[in-house]
Q: What sequence folds into this?
């Protein structure tokens, strides 16, 4: 991003903060990026879906393993990518950096989830 564009964006954040008092620069940047990337119903109807899609496609994520608890001795989650494709697969790997902490197969679903907007295609 050029210096002039950053300064203009920062000015917009300051103006927006004066109006509603809630905006941060990071949330403003996410809102701008998601409005540019996701037009129409590319991701879903909810703003949370767009924010999660933006986070999963732009930030760094690392696989994590579900940890057993006293009441959940063999923890499993359903793979989000496989489920969207109509296949049921229980996995122990999740992405703890994503807001919804989805269950994902280590290969290839983890990579598909974090690199493609329409990961099910």
A:
């Amino acid at each position: 991003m050029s210096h002039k564009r950053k300064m203009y964006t920062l000015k917009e954040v300051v103006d927006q903060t004066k109006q509603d008092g809630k905006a941060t620069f990071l949330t403003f940047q996410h809102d701008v990026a998601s409005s540019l990337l996701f037009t129409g119903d590319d991701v879903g109807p909810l703003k949370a879906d767009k924010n999660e899609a933006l986070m999963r496609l732009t930030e760094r994520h690392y696989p994590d393993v579900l940890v057993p608890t006293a009441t959940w001795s063999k923890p499993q989650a359903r793979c989000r990518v496989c489920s969207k494709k109509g296949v049921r697969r229980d996995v122990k790997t999740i992405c703890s950096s994503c807001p919804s902490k989805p269950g994902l197969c280590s290969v290839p679903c983890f990579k598909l989830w974090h690199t493609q907007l329409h990961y099910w295609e």
